[in-house]
Structures are given as C-alpha cells and as structure tokens.
Design goal:
Its EC number is 3.13.2.1. May play a key role in the regulation of the intracellular concentration of adenosylhomocysteine. Pfam families: AdoHcyase, AdoHcyase_NAD. The chain is built from 17 helices and 15 strands. An 8-stranded mixed beta sheet has the order 9-8-7-10-11-14-13-12, sandwiched between helices. Helix 8 runs antiparallel to helix 15. The N and C termini lie far apart (68 Å). It has 2 domains: 231 residues, Rossmann fold (3-Layer(aba) Sandwich), CATH 3.40.50; 156 residues, NAD(P)-binding Rossmann-like Domain (Rossmann fold), CATH 3.40.50.720. 45% of the residues lie in helices and 16% in strands. It is of the alpha/beta class and 427 residues long. It is globular.
Amino acid sequence: MSDYQPISAQLDDVSSAREDGHRKMDWARQHMPILNALRDDFVADQPLAGEVVGMAMHVEAKTACLVELLAEGGADVAITGCNPLSTHDDVSAALDEHERIESYAKRGVDDEEYYAAIDAVIDHEPTITVDDGADLIFRIHQEYPELIDSIVGGCEETTTGVHRLRAMDEDGELDYPVFAVNDTPMKRLFDNVHGTGESSLANIAMTTNLSWAGKTVVVGGYGDCGRGVAKKAEGQNADVIVTEVEPRRALEAHMEGYEVMPMAEAAKEGDVFITTTGNRDVITEEHFEVMQDGVLLANAGHFDVEVNLDQLSDLAVDTYEARDGVRTYELDDGRRLNVLAEGRLVNLASPIALGHPVEVMDQSFGIQAVAAREVAQNSGEYDAGVHNVPDELDREIAEIKLDAEGVAFDSLSAEQSEYMNSWDHGT
C-alpha cells in the first residue's frame, strides 16, 4: 500500500492554490458544452453510482471538468498524473477539495514519486480505469493482479496507450475490457489533428518567442498528429518536411504537397523538429551531428523517447537553460541544439503549456464520459481486450456538439436507409 499523500497535504498554501484552480476550471467549463449537456444527464441518472474510477491523466483544467462530471455521475474518483510535467498543481488541489475526488497529481515528480502516486490511486481499488498512456493499466496488471476481477473495464485516451494495449491484447495479457477512445472519429479527427497541431505550435512559439514564418519545420511521422502539425505549420507560412517509415503515409504526405525524405537528410535542412510517432529514437546522434546551429527539438508524442537525449548529452560539452522550458546543448564545434520541455509532450510539459484547446478536449472528454458510462452499465457485453467505442456513442457526442453550435444537418429518409443497407439494388 502506498503512503503517498493527496496534493492538498503537499502544498504550503493550499487555499490559494484551490482558488486559482477553480478559476481555471470555471473558464474551461464555460467553453465545454458537451460536458455541460452530459452533466445534466449524469446528475439525474447517476450512471456511475457505486463505481470507483481510477484515473491517470494530464491533470489540468479541462481534465478536471471530466473528473468532476464522473464524480457528479455517482463515482468516487482517485486521480494522478500521466506525465511528470503536465500537472497544474492548483487544479489538482481544487479537484482534491471535492468530497468524491482525491487527487495525487503533482508537477515535477521523479519516477519513484510518479509510481507511488499511481499506487495511491490503485489503493482505492478502482472498478473502472481511465488512462492516458496506459501506465495505470499496466501497473495494475503487473503489480496488483488480484484487483483485476473487480474491474469492469477501462478507457484509454491516447494513441501511444492504445498501441501498447493492442500489443498487450495480442499477447493475451490484457485481462479486462478497455475502450480505445483514441480511435473514435470524434477523437481522432479533431483532437489528434487540430488539438495536437494547434497546441504544439502555440506552445513552441510561446516558449521560444520565435515566429514560424519562413522556417523549415521537420515533422517526424505522418499519422493523425503529424498530419495536424504539418497542416498547422504550413498555415503559419513555414516550409514543411515530413519523415515517415510507412510507405502509404509517406505517399499521402507527398500527395499533400509536403517534401518527404529520410530523417538523415531532413536533419540537415530543419530549423524546428517536431516528433509525433510514439516510437523511440526518431532523432539520434547521427542526426544531431549534421543539424544547424540553433535548431529547436520538440516532441509531441506521449513519452520522452523520440529524441534521444542520452546521446545528445554525450555529444554536448555544455548544457544550460536558455529560457524557461528550453535547454541548450552546446557541441564541441560551437553549435547549439535546443530541446523544449525536456523532450516530453511539448504542448503539455513546457512551463507555460496549456494543452489542447478547450473546445477540442470537450469532444474527447465527452467520449471518455460516455465510454465510462457504457463500461458501468454494459460491462457484461465486452470480453477482456481492446474494444472500439460503439459508434452510436461517438455520434451522440457529435450531435451534442452540433446542437451547441446551432448547426443543423440532414438525416436519411426511410427509402435512403433501405437503399444503403440492402445488397439487391443493381444497375
């Protein structure tokens, strides 16, 4: 059992922190019509009554609105961070004040504290898990397998976490059902493209006080996140180079008008490098050795393994903080390579980072909320393993959003539905 304490016991001025956290949450709530609409139903129906929800997420204002929604829907909630640098302590403290929520999330923890906080969440014996990166799920399977029989299911938020869980599922090691929230259209088409693209570029610009116009931006990977980063960078008048290992994505990037080349070639050309692959060693020693003086190195993938900082440290003759959130590695020939946010998620881990836009996360967290509701109400319908979120739930969130925006849309007539769902209409 972990003796790690909730955030409220760790802060010197918890009252002031809570006040600041509530102010941030109030602002986010004003711009989250999906969660606000769901809140009315959750309060009335109590779909999570009797459940204990364990969460490992980026604990900031938008996430807090989801956490409160789950608690107001009847759950007891324990939460911690899913990244050592993405927690806002004031928001964590504000959450911890809620009678049905305990928050262990704290910014700047080391590895030992990070997992002690996850263990503290697990000590609550969750019946539902909500994860961003799957660290909570893995910890339960590896260290607390005795709890698995009491867990009805879980939800996974991000691309990297879903990849890990699918690998776990293929090996027959995932012992309860988990919804791949990341893979729904309402998450993938908006959060990964618009959310990652806009927030990564915004936080790099704010951290460095540099412009995008005229710069050469190298995007590592052309999945949904890489596509978003490339699109948004091009929209701010940058020249974009894409690197890929998957031939169809490389062809897609080429057909979209981007230069496509191996990273070994792109390393000589780029002013800014942004990795989005979810894989390790995307940028390594061979690339550092040919980069220009002053380049920016940023990562928009979940873990800090895409830019090999161990190799960069070995090459450097000096390192220092050039600005808040920017660490400069000076090489023996005088070139300076600048790493943002310690190689972690640049849109969440830099000192001034605020994460994805509020409206985008309203959609993603709406999916999380209805997926958690589905787990609580219909867990018996799902075997252990990774599952797609039912399409009707994804559509539910889209319809709430359209209604909030005052956007009307067509529906199929009975004749059209019959035509689309039959096989015997020929020429």
